């Protein structure tokens, strides 16, 4: 489970997905499957959380990795590249962005 702390030295990634309410649950199912069967087993994975807004038009994914290179290596695998192609068919756009924790309250 991810823990947000100012002294976290790994890589934090926030990915936002935009979709219609009609595809929100399908996208959430695909993300759950990706974490359950693949992502959480990758080197450097620490934890993640999935969040959906009430209107079912956005999903936010918070993940933590030991190192930036671990996250990038996971993205480059053939399995994740194929999964990302499927995810792209269920949403209008998605964007993973790497962040550094600056503070936590």
UniProtKB/TrEMBL annotation:
Gene3D superfamilies: 3.30.70.100
InterPro entries noted in UniProt: ABM_dom, Dimeric_a/b-barrel
Domain of life: Bacteria
Keyword Chloroplast: no
Pfam families, sorted: ABM
Domain ABM intervals: 11-102
Protein name (record): Antibiotic biosynthesis monooxygenase
Species assigned in the record: Albidovulum litorale
